[in-house]
Amino acid sequence: MFLILDESVILFVFAAVFGLLWGSFLNVVAFRLAFDLPFWRPRSHCPQCDRQLRWFELLPLVSWIFLRGRCRTCKASISWLYPTLELLGGISFGLLFITFPLRFIPFLAVFISALLVSLRTDIEQLVIFRYCTLFLIPLAWLGAWFNLLPLSLTFSLIGTVLGYGILWSVRFLSQLITGRIGMGLGDAEMLAMIGAFLGPFGLWSSLFIASCIGSLIGVFMLIQGKATRTTPLPFGAFLALGGLISLFLAVPLTTLF
Predict the structure, then answer these.
(1) Which in 31, 46, 179, 229 has the greatest CB count within 10 A?
(2) How far, in Å, are 17, 105, 109, 160 from residue 192 at the CA level?
(3) Beta partners for 52?
(4) What gap in Å lies between CA 115 and CA 30, rounded to an integer?
(5) In the prediction, which pLDDT does 1 show?
(6) Per-domain residue ranges for the chain?
(7) C-beta atoms surrounding 68 within 10 Å
(8) Beta carbons of 133 and 243 less than 8 angstroms apart
(9) Using the 8-state DSSP alphabet, how is residue 237 labeled?
(10) Mean local confidence (pLDDT), 157-171
C-alpha cells in the first residue's frame, strides 16, 4: 500500500527543512551581532575550547540532540537557543509556504528572519538591533504598496505609528511614575516594525501574546527566586514570539473580512 501525501504536506516538509537550515544561519547572524563579531570569519567554532566545528556538528537540530547539548571536545554546554531558533525557523517557514500566496513569501520571510534574530539577541544581550526593526519598516511599506504583503499601505502606516506610540507611552509613563526607565526604545521600535508588517490587528495580538508570555515567565522566575521585581526581562523576545504567532493566527483571520 502506497501512502499518498497531500501536496501541502510535501510543501511543508521541504519548506521546514529549508527553515531549519535558515534558522541555523540566523543563529550565526544573531550570535555575531550580539557579541560584535565579524560575520564571515572565523568559521564556526566552540567559544570555550576554540576548536573549529566539523560539518556533522553543524546539522540543524540533529547535531545538538546527538551531542546532548555539549561540545564534543571540551563538553561545554551549547546554548539551548541554537535548537530553539532552528526549530522555530523550520516551523515558521513550513507554515509560511502553506499559509500565504507565493507573492507574500519573500517579504514575510524577511519579517520572520528579523524576529528570530531579535529573539536571540534580546535574550542573550538584552539588545535589539535596528537592522531588524527600524531599517525594515520602509521595506514593509513598500511591500504593502505593491501588494506584496497581506495588508494595505494605510494599515501598515497605522500599525507602525501605533506600535511605536504604544510602547513609547508606556516607557514615558513608567519613567514619570517610578522615576526609572522600565522599557527600552528597542521594544517600541520592534513593535513598530511588527505593526508595519502585520497592521493594527496583528500588532494588538502580538502585544497581547507577548504580555501574556512575559507575565507568565516573570511570575515563574519570581516564584523560583531567579528574579526580582526590578530584574530586566527580554520583552523584545516575547514580542518576537507574539509576532510569529500572530502572523499565522491573527493575519489569516483578517483576510476573511
Answers:
(1) 31
(2) 30, 20, 18, 4
(3) 45
(4) 11
(5) 39
(6) 1-99, 129-257
(7) 10
(8) no
(9) H
(10) 93
The CA distance from 105 to 108, in Å, is: 5
Contacts of 165 by beta carbon, 8 Å cutoff, 6+ apart: none
Quote the CA–CA distance of 22 and 85 in Å, as a whole number. 9
Reduced to 3 states (helix: H, G, I; strand: E, B; else coil), residue 99 is helix
DSSP code, position 226: S
Q: What is the DSSP letter of 100?
A: S
**CA dist., res. 156 & res. 197, Å (int):** 6
CB burial of residue 228 (10 Å; 0-12, 13-18, 19+): exposed
Place of cell 504567532: 245
The alpha-helical segments, DSSP class H, found in the chain are 7-34, 62-66, 81-99, 105-125, 137-145, 153-178, 185-223, 235-254
The label of the residue with cell 556533522 reads 56
Model confidence over 44-99: pLDDT tens digits? 777 778 778 777 777 888 888 888 888 888 888 888 999 999 999 999 999 999 99
Q: Output the CA angle 190-249-105, nearest 5 degrees.
A: 70
Q: How far is CA 137 from the centre of its chain?
A: 16
C-alpha span between 233 and 122 (Å, rounded): 9
Q: Which DSSP symbol is given to 129?
A: -
- Block residue for cell numbers 547539548: 69
**Taking the CB of residue 255, how many other CB atoms lie within 10 A of it?**
9
Q: 86 and 20 in contact (C-beta within 8 Å)? A: yes
C-alpha dist (Å) from residue 39 to 28, 136, 170, 203: 8, 20, 35, 31
Nearby residues of 200 by Cβ (< 8 Å), 6 or more positions away = 155, 158, 159, 162
